[in-house]
Fold each of these.
Amino acid sequence: MPNDSSEFVQALREAGLKVTQQRVALLATLMESTDHPNAEEIFVRVRALDDSVSLATVYRTLSTLEEAGLVQRLTFENEPARFEITPASQHDHLVDVDSGEVIELPSEELNRIRQDLADRLGYEIVSLHSFIRARKKPAVS
Amino acid sequence: MPNDSSEFVQALREAGLKVTQQRVALLATLMESTDHPNAEEIFVRVRALDDSVSLATVYRTLSTLEEAGLVQRLTFENEPARFEITPASQHDHLVDVDSGEVIELPSEELNRIRQDLADRLGYEIVSLHSFIRARKKPAVS
DNA sequence: TTTTTTGCAAACCTTTTGCAAGCTG
DNA sequence: CAGCTTGCAAAAGGTTTGCAAAAAA
């Protein structure tokens, strides 16, 4: 396994996962992606770095990395799952129903309230999945 | 089409939809369900009322009713979509990752904050999909 | 060398769809 | 009666899996 210097190699080691070319390529791809690509899109992008990667491996690796907490799966309606590198702080997503664009919402306040609700019910939060489907309002003159 | 007295018949009329035995049966089923069943489960329950209903119709009807705003689709991870009669007030869902149980969270405050965030970005909310995956904490003595 | 990971292709599962027949308004 | 709705069976689309070969530790 190449290039121990990479931050991804380290992340994989810390997660107790074997360091493979494919996993590193996938993490690198996801790190460069500012949008929220789905498996198919990730597949295309990963192949630019390593054209040996198969779609099956993309799916398998995404699940593995999700389980390890390195990647976050976003489950929206009527579309394949999207993915992102686990963000420093949890946030909600606003999905533009017309363009499909995803905007990340700052939500410390939302997080605090949710944390509180869960606490009160005796639950600890495992993960959060929040998206608001919304439509751009005509600009106010 | 039977029994005009039913509240469901009226709801369908108001939505501008044709009143069919299948739609009424599906609405009745969903109204009786306190859990959040998926299409397959709804299919089984509807057949208790009207054994002519097909699974295809369950899916088609759910989509139709969703579009009409009478039904809400809940998209969780790694499982088929679940449905509920459109609730009086929007709420978040807490999903017990061990049991699969879904708990509805009171969230006027969350709603207000989200409304605010969307407003500020110039968006109007179309629908909300929020679920928190959580695990029961051991009871504190 | 042992064990895990991968590629390929086939399978899976949920959801959608074409079509002819049956209802609704 | 015109047009929407349904049942059936087949198809679609995203995701998973069995297996033998390849790579990691």
Amino acid sequence: MSTSTPASPGGKAAWAGAREALRERGLRWTPQRRLILDVLAETSGHITGAELVERCRARDAATIGSTVYRTLDVLEELGYVRHSHGADGREEYHVLPLAEHAHIGCLGCGAAWDLTWEDARELVERLEARNGFRVALGHVMIGGYCPGCEPAER
Amino acid sequence: MSTSTPASPGGKAAWAGAREALRERGLRWTPQRRLILDVLAETSGHITGAELVERCRARDAATIGSTVYRTLDVLEELGYVRHSHGADGREEYHVLPLAEHAHIGCLGCGAAWDLTWEDARELVERLEARNGFRVALGHVMIGGYCPGCEPAER
DNA sequence: GTCGTTCTTGCGAGGCTATGCAATAACAAC
DNA sequence: GTTGTTATTGCATAGCCTCGCAAGAACGAC
Ligand SMILES: [Mn+2]
Ligand SMILES: [Mn+2]
Ligand SMILES: [Zn+2]
Ligand SMILES: [Zn+2]
């Protein structure tokens, strides 16, 4: 469903410090969190909350949705994931974000791509200059239609 | 919560043609649709799907959510409303959009502004040329911080 | 006014996400 | 290993939005 974002850097390696990161904050290392991190470590690019629940459930049928969503909140605070909302409003988590970037999503087929600061520069500079508005690229979502998806009517 | 978008032009007047617009397409004029249009005619700027359901329910307790959402779909096809998704992923309907436009929202205070095709031209043209991607300006959401709101952390 | 066609509605169910609460488990200290 | 503290889980519930389906209503024709 979601395309884009080249493979993450170290794969599993990047997650090595997660257990320590949790403990340093007084948070706990539980079997549920370990499973979620294992799945994320094998994911590159984007994943929706629902997809993550599903993949965890494939490995442990007892997986509870709310636990997954709450763990995602924690991981976002630690910087391991970052979320925005896709064109359909659903959560889209970016795993191990290398650099802040915006998302472009097809309203037809749901495919998604990334947009860099460089791509958005002209617009970002215009908003900064004209309105004093500082764009948070991670919270930019551009909806539209990819070449394969004709926008039906209108 | 959402600022911007000056009051709609004619208020009720702008909705006068709605009944005809429906009939010309073979669609029907029902009591449910009339109520929804009445409520929308008294709304200017933005409204979420849930808010609209609530306001309709205030006038007719028998209002059914799915009917409201389906009517919004129809009205969007006729051009009377246009929706995108707010920073929290919920649907945000723009009533009587004068022109298709994108939304800029402050992640700090929630203030929102509009962005026109002209403002986005450079980026839109770039995406069209480079990826064959046709931007739907109404589905563009730009998050960031207004001059008054310091970007907290990270 | 009656009838037939086709659009709409109501209703039920389901997907995605959030939250409160009590029971449980992780961790640190001993 | 036991115990106490407190974070976390499971569960239930709820909100927002979508969809299928069968019953019902709007509309045009007569
Ligand atoms: Mn939508
Ligand atoms: Mn969110
Ligand atoms: Zn597409
Ligand atoms: Zn602000």
Amino acid sequence: MSLQDSQSQSLQDTSKSANCTAMSDVLNRIGDKWSVMVVGILGQNGTLRFNELKRMINGVSQRMLTLTLRNLERDGLVTRTIYPEVPPRVEYQLTELGKTLQKPITALWDWSSANHGSIMDARSIYDARSEALAASEPRKVAYVRG
Amino acid sequence: MSLQDSQSQSLQDTSKSANCTAMSDVLNRIGDKWSVMVVGILGQNGTLRFNELKRMINGVSQRMLTLTLRNLERDGLVTRTIYPEVPPRVEYQLTELGKTLQKPITALWDWSSANHGSIMDARSIYDARSEALAASEPRKVAYVRG
DNA sequence: CGGTATCCATTTGGATACTG
DNA sequence: CAGTATCCAAATGGATACCG
């Protein structure tokens, strides 16, 4: 145990699958981009209505936002409060559990914006190299075939 | 700018979509569970061969591990080293960029294992409540219809 | 406003078989 | 060992229409 004091406790013995299972399970829910977006934005803004969220999350469809919010609510990460008014008003905010997710999500978010450029660059280099290889391939194939 | 000193720089003005795009783009790649697994496990173990990774990542198929590793390599997060031996040996490790991802990934991993139980509990409660509502629904429907 | 319901195209990913 | 290739079922998710 002392060996891992500075390491992630949960990253030990991943082969035992117990932690991998927990991680899988959690990632299946909160690992998709819409969930990350919702938690990130709710964490930043406190309380938001459905259409406010929709406007702030670039490209999300009504269907996906609804599904995402239901799942987050089911997992105890978000509260949904309905105000019986006309027109209806529904407000969403992070639960206490949801707020604890804010920190790791924000870390990931910051990493993303900080390293997006590096990733795009790496992709360009990789793709250029792949194309160069593909361009040299036909000759070999032609030789083999003909 | 001074208002957000202690906040996530990237979480501002999400409605401008620029950061949302970066986040989306990064999450589409590194946000799936296999990528998180690979980065987490490679970060913990340093260097691993293909089948070592496969054994440590519970439930991954050969196909998915291959695809995941190719994408991580393309994004500059993982290096792939081929040793021209028989039988072939291929070793994977994190790049410097990949190592910077380790920290946020580990944070998420730790959060997952720490809160998996709470999430499962929340789901049980939510589902029980949903079933109760579903059970009371038929009467209303019957009344409306008949 | 804040959904639900339905349809349908695309994507995802497991299983299986084959290869250098 | 470390893949690649193919097939196919299931999940994902957008578009659209309708509802309280």
